[in-house]
């Protein structure tokens, strides 16, 4: 099993190009099921979750998938042997695979899908997906770990208000409603840019009729087909935020290209509070870390456009180095403090009370052997190890490979002493 060897402390400086967004690519790839003609998706990140989904599309569902890894693109088109069965073996490794259900039901009227897996960071139930699709006309049963779903004729548009904001359920229902008869109104939607901007633009460019008519309300008129298109996925805002944190914690000097800075204004404003100096221009951020990190009295994770849960672990590593006490409140996932025990192994002083982490700060990290528990926790450990005194070994980095494109190569390029070992 592969692991990272990190020798610190490092100071990050130079330039990094952000990869395409994993969280945009996954629903867009699922939406490709709706197409009869070929669709090209560009700027895909080279990460394990993308490879898994492409494998599901080709091996389980029967679509033709032509990957060009040099150009970070894929061409997908329908064949004569399309299946609607998604096996446990592939689906169990990735939560986002539930977003195959909406397009399969909308286009092919039936689907048998294993209940999905993914990071162990919370319950993340699929009931919001199932409830919304049921209101569009889908019928389903869950038997032996599989969702058996079908619709008699077509999905039919209706008004749906999500009981809780859900990124996955919003994406799944938008995709399904593209072929639903009549008008669909979705309320209390997630408005992450991967959904409100990227997925919506992708589908509308292909001929869908989707319009956001309020901050969290979207209207979809059903269409009968989508046209062949080529589309480039937006940059990954979580990867961008991760490198911003890495520059800040190391008193670094980093230029980050490939993302509109306005998309992560909330995160950048918090980094300014810690002492980072930030300059923004079109698709570029120039960030300089402070000599001494300032504490943040209270930070809480929220749905977009609040502070993202996917950057909570990285910020916790940063605030361990801050001068004073900080508090982080995790309001999205109940199990997203699994990295705390590992940060303590590096010397962090963190107290957990319910959904709050109280971070004492002024930590001098000392290298240690560490264990990754999930995708974002893994990268927080890499960040902490990069500024620790001495050698750290980070185990189970397959979590990292699910969402970061060969992160060690990018970090090595900007001054981190990191190596992948077996």
The percentage of residues in β strands lies in: 25-35%
- CATH top level assignment of the largest domain: Alpha Beta
CATH homologous group name of the largest domain: Enolpyruvate transferase domain
CATH topology of the largest domain: the name is: UDP-n-acetylglucosamine1-carboxyvinyl-transferase, Chain
CATH architecture of the largest domain: Alpha-beta prism
Give the total of domains.
2
Distance between the termini: 6 Å
The rough form would be described as globular
The biggest beta sheet is recorded as:
4 strands, mixed
The helicity comes to 25-40%
Which ranges are low-confidence, i.e. pLDDT below 50, for 5 or more consecutive residues?
118-124
The number of helical runs is 14
Strand order of the largest sheet: 22-23-1-24
How many whole angstroms does the radius of gyration measure? 21 Å
Number of strands: 24
Helix/strand-derived class? alpha/beta
Mean pLDDT across every amino acid position: 94
Topology diagram in text:
Elements: E1 3-8, E2 13-17, H1 22-31, E3 39-42, H2 48-60, E4 64-68, E5 73-77, E6 85-86, H3 88-91, H4 101-108, E7 110-114, H5 127-135, E8 139-143, E9 146-150, E10 159-161, H6 167-177, E11 183-187, H7 193-205, E12 209-214, E13 217-221, E14 230-232, H8 237-249, E15 253-257, H9 265-273, E16 277-281, E17 284-288, E18 299-300, H10 312-320, E19 326-329, H11 340-345, E20 350-353, E21 356-359, E22 369-371, H12 375-386, E23 390-395, H13 398-401, H14 407-413, E24 417-421
Parallel strand pairs: 2-15, 3-14, 6-7, 10-11, 18-19, 22-23
Antiparallel strand pairs: 1-23, 1-24, 3-5, 4-5, 7-9, 8-9, 11-13, 12-13, 15-17, 16-17, 19-21, 20-21
Helix pairs in contact: 1-2, 1-7, 4-6, 5-6, 6-7, 8-10, 8-12, 10-12
């Amino acid at each position: 099993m592969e692991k990272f060897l990190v020798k610190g402390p490092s100071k990050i400086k130079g330039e990094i190009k952000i990869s395409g967004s994993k969280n945009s690519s996954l629903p867009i790839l699922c939406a490709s099921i709706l197409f009869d003609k070929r669709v090209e998706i560009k700027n895909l990140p080279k990460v394990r979750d993308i490879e898994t989904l492409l494998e599901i599309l080709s091996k389980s569902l029967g679509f033709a998938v032509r990957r060009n890894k040099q150009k970070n693109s894929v061409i997908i088109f329908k064949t004569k042997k399309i299946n609607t069965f998604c096996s446990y073996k592939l689906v169990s490794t990735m939560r986002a695979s539930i977003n195959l259900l909406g397009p399969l039901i909308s286009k092919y009227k039936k689907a048998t899908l294993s209940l999905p897996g993914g990071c162990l960071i919370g319950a993340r139930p699929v009931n919001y997906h199932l409830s919304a699709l049921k209101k569009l006309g889908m019928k389903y049963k869950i038997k032996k770990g599989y969702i058996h779903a079908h619709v008699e004729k077509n999905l039919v548009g209706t008004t749906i208000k999500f009981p809780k904001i859900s990124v996955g359920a919003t994406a799944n229902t938008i995709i399904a409603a593209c072929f639903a008869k009549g008008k669909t109104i979705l309320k209390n939607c997630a408005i992450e840019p991967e959904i409100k901007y990227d997925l919506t633009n992708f589908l509308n460019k292909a001929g869908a009729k989707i319009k956001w008519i309020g901050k969290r309300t979207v209207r979809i008129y059903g269409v009968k087909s989508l046209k062949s298109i080529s589309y480039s996925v937006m940059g990954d805002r979580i990867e961008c935020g991760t490198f911003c944190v890495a520059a800040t914690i190391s008193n670094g000097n980093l230029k980050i290209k490939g993302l509109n800075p306005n998309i992560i204004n909330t995160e950048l404003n918090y980094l300014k509070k810690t002492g980072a100096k930030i300059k923004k221009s079109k698709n570029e951020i120039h960030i300089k870390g402070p000599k001494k990190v300032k504490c943040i009295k209270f930070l809480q994770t929220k749905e977009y456009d609040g502070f993202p849960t996917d950057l909570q672990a990285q910020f916790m590593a940063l605030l361990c180095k801050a001068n004073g006490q900080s508090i982080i409140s995790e309001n999205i996932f109940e199990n997203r403090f699994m990295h705390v025990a590992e940060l303590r192994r590096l010397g962090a002083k963190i107290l957990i009370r319910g959904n709050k982490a109280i971070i004492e700060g002024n930590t001098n990290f000392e290298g240690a052997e560490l264990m990754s528990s999930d995708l974002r926790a893994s990268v927080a450990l890499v960040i902490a190890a990069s500024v620790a005194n001495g050698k750290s070994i980070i185990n189970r980095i397959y979590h990292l490979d699910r969402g970061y494109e060969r992160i060690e190569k990018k970090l090595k390029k900007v001054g981190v002493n990191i190596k992948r070992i077996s």
